[in-house]
Amino acid sequence: MLGETVKFVVLFNEAKAYGLIKADTSESEAFFSTTGLAEGYGPVAVGDKVFYFEDDEMIEGQLCAVNIRKRLAK
């Protein structure tokens, strides 16, 4: 597992329970499933800033986001 990262949800399909996370300045995307949301951090939506850990071994050839936590507004 790689280190913690902060980026934005750019796609979320609630019906299929998956989405993509990407930084504004980056070409790389991280796939996530709603099962990867950290307990107590609720649903996410496009545009949400999230903290997560990157996993490059879960799906071969695909960077995945796990332990996803939505940044709470202050």
UniProtKB/TrEMBL annotation:
This is CSD domain-containing protein. Gene3D superfamilies: Nucleic acid-binding proteins.
